[in-house]
Amino acid sequence: MKTFRLILNALIIALLLSPAVVSAQARLQVIHNSADAAASVVDVWLNDQLLIDDFAFRTASPFIDAPAGVDFDVVIQPANSTDTTNALARFTYNLADGETYVLVANGIVVPTGYNPATPFDIYVYGMGRETATMPENSDVLVFHGSTDAPTVDIVEVGVGAGLLVDNLSYSDFAGYLELPTADYVLAVRDESGTVTVATYDAPLATLGLQGAAMTIVASGFLDPSMNNNGEAFGLFVALPSGGALVELPLHTPMARLQVIHNSADAAASVVDVWLNDQLLIDDFAFRTASPFIDAPAGVDFDVVIQPANSTDTTNALARFTYNLADGGKYILVANGMVSGSGYAPVKPFDIYVYASAREEATQSTNTDVLVFHGSTDAPVIDVIEVLSGAGTIVDNLGYSEFAGYLELPTANYQLNITDETGTTVVATFNAPLADLGLDGQALTLVASGFLDPAMNSNGAEFGLFAVLPEGGNFVTLGNTTNVEYNILSSGSLVGYPNPAKDNVNIKFSLNDPGEVYLSIHNIAGQMIYQENMVGVSSGTHNKLVPLNNLPSGLYFVSLVAGNTIQTTKLQVIE
């Protein structure tokens, strides 16, 4: 297509037509959206001067100066025209000084073979923009230019922006949408809002359109066979700089998922994972995870588990069918026993699904932690944080259950795994989120292995492991329960009197000097007292703690020293 090489000359001549034009100008952009084959390439004249030569369907002029305050004609002629006689179409305008206009050429020139044969016209929007009103936004003007499409709604279904345009009919403009620059998914629906005509990606951020204004036009035919086999329906973007309209791609429904292998059965120590009949993960080892990957959404698909070195999905160890939501994020944890014996208890193999997964934290200063109980012989557990005083962060988590994301300030934590009463410590682990540099990340914390390996084919011991979004080997959290070197003397923590009323003495003994962290929690896990004691000498100590009229009830006193922890019950009376 020829460029708009005659614009400047035409405008100079147009400006000479009237002295008033010198000081009175408007800005306008012309968009060619007529899908009639007879108008596929046209010439655009301004009065009797050729303004745009060989102007092709689905192209736009840049914004240009035009005379204001005087009548002028825009004339549409077939390509290679030499004058404006016997014009295909002629339109007279009188533009306001200083205003910006968007003109869309649309409709049918030769009605034969089109249904409906909506007449050709130029539709004018008189409050056009060349840039967004805010630099962090993209301002989007929407025009309905598909002659055989019904009245439509446009609903954003990617980031959850919802209804953007309501009941837009042919030839209508929807006023500018001032959208934060991001990548969107636009569902074009009938006016009931229930039937989706088509869904498109609108990658405004990917296209670098921050601070830009643009026009999105609905273009072409929903049923080309009833319209001379013309161009099919689509959404196209006209940029202020003009040129070929940018086609928005049809949206392919996709979800994101991560697969975590936490089955401690020796028979499943290394497996293959298939997606339908395609090998997805080869030689997938226990205590490893895939990264987050794209997966089909909106259709049924199978996840098939096979022994390592498998060549197909026949006689599968396990097969699971899923239908994921478009745009959803999922974590799938493979857990339980393939074998029918040698384990106590035998929890059948299954894949457990969490449907609100995250690949990053909601705040850059946090680490978002999803907890999954995957230890087949562990009881219902609580997770109590005892180093920073966060208290009970997970309550009554049973096997195969997820606890929703904990949005934790990125710091180093120490976690007591207790039975559901919160009094019997099963194990204690360090969770050094800060030392691991996990600011702004999301991860899954998995309880894995056996509390009693002897009753479970001498399998892997119980542990807590972090699974990162990029996958790979689990990150081991240090188990401090049975360390050989104990700063805190075994069984030395005592609170007296017990029951206590106004004050309680906390007695403890240290084998060596060190830092001591003391905390008291109520039965709901809320911390009601904390103190960090630095430079405590070895030997026996008494710490008087005022109870400050605490309500009567059961409380838990925890003492952390070095890599050791002790907890004791305290009854408070009024």
Structure description:
- The structure is a single chain.
- This protein is an all-beta fold and 574 residues long.
- It has 5 domains: 7-125, Immunoglobulin-like (Sandwich), CATH 2.60.40; 137-247, Immunoglobulin-like (Sandwich), CATH 2.60.40; 261-354, no CATH class; 366-476, Immunoglobulin-like (Sandwich); 494-572, Immunoglobulin-like.
- Helices cover 2% and strands 49% of the residues.
- It is built from 1 helix and 45 strands.
- Strands 1, 4, 5, 8, 9 and 18 form a 6-stranded mixed beta sheet that branches.
- The termini are far apart.
- Residues 1-22 have low confidence and may be disordered.
Which features characterize this protein?
Immunoglobulin-like, mainly beta, six-stranded mixed beta sheet, 574 residues, 5 domains
Number of domains: 5
The Rg value, from CA coordinates, equals: 35 Å
CATH class of the largest domain: Mainly Beta
The name of the CATH architecture of the largest domain is Sandwich
**Low-confidence runs:** 1-22
Query: What's the main sheet like?
Result: 6 strands, mixed
Strands, count: 45
| Structural shape | elongated
